[in-house]
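Entry for phenylalanine complex. Fields follow.
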Amino acid sequence: MKRLFDNFSLRFYFALIATQHTMANRGNFSGRLGFILAAAGSAVGLGNIWRFPYLAGENGGAIFLLVYLCCIFLLCYPIMVGEIAIGRAANSDAFGSYSRLGGKKWGYLGLFGIFAGILILSFYNVVAGWAFGYFLHISFGDLLNHNNFGGFFGEYVNDILDLSSVGGLTNSNLVFSLVFMCLTALIVSQGIQKGIEASNKIMMPSLYVILIGIIIYSLTLPNALSGVKFYLIPDFSELKIQTVVDGLKQAFFSLSLGMGALITYGSYFSKKENITSSAAIISIADTSVAFVSGLMVFPLVHFLAYKLNINPQEIGTSGPPLIFVVLPQIFYEMGPVLGRIIGGSFFLLVCFAALTSTVSLLEVPVAYLVDQKKWKRKRVVWLMALIIFVCGLPSMVSQGMIPALNSLPFYRGQDFLTFIADMSDICLTVGGCLMSIFISRKWGIHNMDVELVHGNSTYMQSRVRTFLHITIKWIAPILLGLLSVVIILEKFFGIENLI
Ligand code: PHE
């Protein structure tokens, strides 16, 4: 009997050591602030500064903003809470979390999220590379001496191997995005606290300071107020189904939902902390950056219209070139010194925003390989970074360099980068839909409740609980399922004119 007991206690002791060992190996955020900054860093990204303003411009300004806000708080916030709860309850990566809580089969949903993360990072890093190059060329080169920015951008994204140096700097996008991926890998390789948390603690506050500085300046420019009006006074006649589809899609992408980034970050979050209030702060932090990015861009665009004596509508604010073509033109109009300062700061801001997001994207597959395959973090990080960088090459050369990728016959003549970006949107909404089904039909919404009580003792009696239940059980699966179908029809069959 004694032997049996010894045996048992010995085994228990080793099991305990092993758990402690793996927990210590996984790493943790040092506290609530570290987690919130890192998750907000993941959320605030190119989606806020590059995509949000042009989508708002295309969809009627203020009305888009209104729809977007409803999507964030009524649908996306509950999904965010659910994702973080899954990660923290399972204390594992995306695959490990789903399989631990729901069985091996559900693990495939985690793998699907990891795949989506790789897809997103592959094209995201290309656009981040463009922004990084612009930062260098505006701050230290002579980009602002061009005054045909449309032409410049076209050539810049087209010839990725352009090794000619302009003002002492290379023009090669291949180099810029490679450097950007290396920066991402360098941060992730340092681990959760020393890498991800520490870098976010520097970059996120800097980002806010730069953003506020530029807004204050842009609001003092002539005609700025007319831009503010376009942005803030809704015209309900502009409300179309397309506005809702775009708003929902954008809200999902912007909050980094549906692919496991927040499951992974949630798994490093202490049980002592409150998830519901942290998720609210993250949603507000992200939405405020998107909101103020619009508040920065539209006054600038209206200022340009005033300077050139044209109608603001004539300035093409639509599409990805907004920040790469229209904004440099505005910086040019500010004169050589001020243009360099404001323009350089703006692109530095874009780089910070992008880097805090690429870090979270890379962490998803890395956490999977570290947790499941027990690979060494440093080695996995560099290997994954290399693989994803190579996956991004077709997107990089799809901007004109390789004509076949510039106009895909099966994708209505669109380029490969757009194709991958659209596929990511679909993966996120499908992932979010299945996640809400997972919580309510498999893991059990009461188990989510149990997780949410940690750090929030009044949760069970709160109204937030009822709201989360209704959204996760009914609204999210139905709405996100519908949205996924609509996006697929819209993208592949071009039915956007029907809706
Ligand atoms: N939320 C990021 C942005 O707005 C993009 C992102 C999506 C990051 C999904 C991680 C996961 O730019």
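NOTE: The chain has one domain: 41-493.
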